[in-house]
C-alpha cells in the first residue's frame, strides 16, 4: 500500500485477535491498521471456510457473463450485477444508478422531450461491459486487450481480484477541504479491484475443444494456484558502510543504519519477468510522495503542489513515475522519468521525456507523479549499475546497497511480477532495520508483502454459441423454525398445567387463616 505509514505489524501467524489500547500511551497508525487487518483476516477466513474459494449468493450472484458480438471485430462481454466472493473478498458488480440533476429554472415542462418532473428518463444499463468495467481500463486500440476472436473460441472469462491503496491524489473527495490546501491529506483507503479478463484454453493446458465444466475448473484451479503468490524472495539488513567514519556526527558511531530519521523503505518490482529482465525501484517514504497533475504540456508538467517541505518535495535528478488511475490498476510498468528542471513559481517541472501515449491525458483519471528515491543503481565491481527505463536491474544472489547502510538481497531463481513489494522499517533508536532473522542473526528471505492476486472462473465463452456458466452459488443458512411434533406439544402443555397448579396452590396457602396453615 503506497501510503505514509510508520510500519505494517500484522502477522497472521501470531494469532492476535484484537489490538487493546492502553491509557496514556502514544497512538500509532500501525496499531489501528493492525486492528483493521485482524478483522479483515477473520472475516475473510470465515467467508472462505463457509463459501469455499469462490461463490455467490443463490438469489443475487453477480458476474454472470454474456458474450456479445460487436461491430468492426470488437466483441464485448456483459457483466451482470450482483455479489460474488473470491477467497472471502466481497466483489460487487452492481452498476450505480445515475443521479438526477435539478432542472433549469427557465426550462419549460415537456420541452425538448424532457420529463415534466425534470428527471432524465434514460436509465443506465443494468450491467457493465468488458470495455467499461470500473477497474479494468481495457483499451480497444490495444490488440492485447481485445477478446479472442470467434475463431479462437472457446476461452475462459475469469475474475481477477486484488487490493490497492487510494489516496487523495487519485480521489480528491478524500481530502477534507476545511483543513486547507497547505495541510496534508488524512487517511488513505484500501480498494478492492476486480477485473474480468479472458484466458485461452491453451494457457490452461486444455486441448479438448468441448471441455466439461469440471475439467475447466480443475485446470483453472491449478493455473490460479501457480499465480496467486509470487515466487520471488527478498531479505534486508543494515550494514555499517565503509565510509561511516566520514559521516557527520548525526547518528551513533556504531549504528549500522546511518539515516538521520526513522523511515519505511519500500522495495517494489517495476518490470516483471525473470531476473535478467526484471527491475525494481525503492522509496524511503513507502512510495507515498505523490504530486497531483493539473496540466501536461509536452515534457512540462504543472502540479497542484510541489510538496509540503524539503523532505517531501521534488528536486532536479529525482526519478518520478507519471501515472494515473488506469495504469495504476493495469499493473503495467511505465518508464521512470528524471526531473530535469524546476519552475517553483509556476509549480512546474520539466521531465526527461514525454509520458507514454495515453497516460495522464484524461483529467477524470487523476494523473499524478510518484517520486522514487533511487538516483542510480548500486555500485558493483567499482562501477555504478546502469538504470533500465529509470529502474534498477534485479541482481540475484548478492547484497545490493540502497542508501545509509540499507541493503537488500534477491534470492536466486525468482520470477518477478510488477507491483510485488517489500517494506523495511529503519530505526535510528536501534541503528538497524526491523527484519526477521534466524538464531544466528542471519536475515530470512520473505515473500512479497503484496500484491496478492485472487482468481475465480466465471464462464466458458463459446462465442456466438453462448457461454457456459462456471460460477458457484450458495443458499442462505436461515430457514423456517420447524413445527414441534405431538409429543413435544403434549409435554409443553403438561408443563404449563403443572406450573398453573403450583401457582394456584401457593395462592390458596397464602390466603388461608393463620391457624389453618
Question: Could you explain the architecture of this structure?
Answer:
With 517 residues, the chain is of the alpha+beta class. The chain has four helices and 29 strands. It has helices spanning 29-51, 213-228, 325-330, 486-511, and strands at residues 54-57, 65-68, 76-80, 83-86, 89-92, 127-129, 155-166, 189-200, 234-238, 263-271, 273-274, 279-283, 290-297, 300-303, 319-323, 336-343, 348-351, 368-372, 379-380, 383-384, 392-393, 399-401, 406-410, 415-416, 421-427, 432-433, 454-461, 467-469, 473-474. The strands form eight sheets. It has a six-stranded antiparallel beta barrel. Strand 4 and strand 5 form a beta hairpin. The longest helix has 26 residues, at 486-511.
Provide key terms for this protein:
about 25% strand; globular; about 525 residues; alpha+beta; five-stranded antiparallel β-sheet
Helices and strands in order:
Blueprint: H1 29-51, E1 54-57, E2 65-68, E3 76-80, E4 83-86, E5 89-92, E6 127-129, E7 155-166, E8 189-200, H2 213-228, E9 234-238, E10 263-271, E11 273-274, E12 279-283, E13 290-297, E14 300-303, E15 319-323, H3 325-330, E16 336-343, E17 348-351, E18 368-372, E19 379-380, E20 383-384, E21 392-393, E22 399-401, E23 406-410, E24 415-416, E25 421-427, E26 432-433, E27 454-461, E28 467-469, E29 473-474, H4 486-511
Widest β-sheet, arrangement of strands: 13-14-17-16-15-18
Number of strands: 29
Structural class: alpha+beta
Characterize the largest beta sheet: strand count, sense, and whether it forms a barrel: 6 strands, antiparallel, barrel
DSSP strand content: 25-35%
Question: Which spans of ≥5 residues are poorly predicted at pLDDT below 50?
Answer: none
Classify the helix fraction into a percent range. Answer: 10-25%
Rounded average pLDDT: 90
* Helical stretch tally: 4
Amino acid at each position: 500500500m503506497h501510503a505514509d505509514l510508520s510500519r505494517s505489524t500484522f502477522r497472521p501467524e501470531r494469532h492476535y485477535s484484537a489490538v487493546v489500547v492502553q491509557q496514556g500511551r502514544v497512538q500509532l497508525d500501525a496499531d489501528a491498521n493492525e486492528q483493521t487487518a485482524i478483522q479483515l483476516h477473520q472475516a475473510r477466513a470465515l467467508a472462505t471456510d463457509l463459501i469455499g474459494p469462490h461463490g455467490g449468493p443463490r438469489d443475487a450472484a453477480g458476474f454472470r457473463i454474456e458474450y456479445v458480438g460487436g461491430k468492426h471485430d470488437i466483441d464485448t462481454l456483459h457483466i451482470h450485477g450482483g455479489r460474488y466472493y473470491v477467497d472471502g473478498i466481497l466483489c460487487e458488480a452492481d452498476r450505480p444508478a445515475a443521479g438526477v440533476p435539478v432542472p433549469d429554472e427557465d426550462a419549460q415542462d415537456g420541452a425538448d422531450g424532457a420529463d415534466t418532473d425534470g428527471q432524465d428518463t434514460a436509465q443506465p444499463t443494468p450491467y457493465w461491459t468488458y470495455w467499461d468495467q470500473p477497474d479494468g481500463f481495457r483499451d480497444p486500440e490495444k490488440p492485447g486487450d481485445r477478446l479472442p476472436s470467434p475463431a479462437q473460441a472457446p476461452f475462459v472469462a475469469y475474475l481477477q481480484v486484488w487490493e490497492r491503496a487510494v489516496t487523495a491524489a487519485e480521489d480528491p473527495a478524500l481530502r477534507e477541504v476545511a483543513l486547507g490546501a497547505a495541510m496534508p491529506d488524512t487517511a488513505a483507503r484500501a480498494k478492492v479491484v476486480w477485473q474480468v479478463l479472458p484466458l485461452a484454453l491453451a494457457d490452461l493446458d486444455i486441448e479438448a475443444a468441448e471441455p466439461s465444466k469440471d475439467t475447466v475448473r480443475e485446470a483453472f484451479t491449478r493455473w490460479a494456484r501457480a499465480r496467486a503468490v509470487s515466487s520471488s524472495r527478498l531479505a534486508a539488513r543494515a550494514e555499517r558502510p565503509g565510509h561511516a567514519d566520514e559521516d557527520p556526527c548525526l547518528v551513533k558511531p556504531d549504528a549500522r543504519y546511518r539515516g538521520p530519521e526513522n523511515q519505511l523503505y519500500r522495495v517494489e518490482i517495476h518490470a516483471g519477468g525473470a531476473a535478467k529482465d526484471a527491475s525494481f525501484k525503492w522509496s524511503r517514504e513507502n512510495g507515498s510522495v505523490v504530486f497531483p497533475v493539473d496540466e501536461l504540456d509536452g515534457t512540462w508538467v504543472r502540479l497542484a503542489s510541489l510538496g509540503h517541505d524539503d523532505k517531501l518535495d521534488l528536486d532536479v535528478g529525482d526519478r518520478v513515475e507519471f501515472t494515473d488511475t488506469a495504469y495504476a490498476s493495469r499493473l503495467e510498468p511505465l518508464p521512470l522519468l528524471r526531473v530535469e528542471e524546476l519552475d517553483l513559481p509556476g509549480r512546474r517541472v520539466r521531465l526527461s521525456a514525454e509520458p507514454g501515449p495515453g497516460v495522464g491525458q484524461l483529467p477524470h483519471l487523476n494523473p499524478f507523479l510518484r517520486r522514487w528515491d533511487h538516483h542510480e543503481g548500486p555500485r558493483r565491481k567499482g562501477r555504478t549499475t546502469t538504470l533500465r527505463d529509470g529502474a534498477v536491474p534485479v541482481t540475484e544472489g548478492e547484497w545490493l546497497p540502497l542508501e545509509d547502510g540499507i541493503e537488500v538481497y534477491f534470492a536466486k531463481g525468482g520470477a518477478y511480477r510488477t507491483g510485488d513489494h517489500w517494506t523495511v522499517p529503519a530505526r535510528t533508536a536501534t541503528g538497524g532495520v526491523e527484519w526477521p532473522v534466524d538464531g544466528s542473526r542471519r536475515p530470512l528471505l520473505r515473500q512479497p508483502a503484496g500484491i496478492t492476486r485472487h482468481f475465480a472462473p466465471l464462464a466458458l465463452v463459446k462465442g456466438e454459441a453462448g457461454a457456459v456458466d462456471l460460477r458457484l452459488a450458495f443458499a442462505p443458512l436461515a430457514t423456517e423454525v420447524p413445527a414441534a411434533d405431538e409429543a413435544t406439544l403434549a409435554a409443553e402443555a403438561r408443563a404449563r398445567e403443572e406450573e398453573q397448579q403450583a401457582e394456584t396452590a401457593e395462592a390458596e396457602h397464602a390466603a388461608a387463616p393463620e391457624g389453618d396453615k
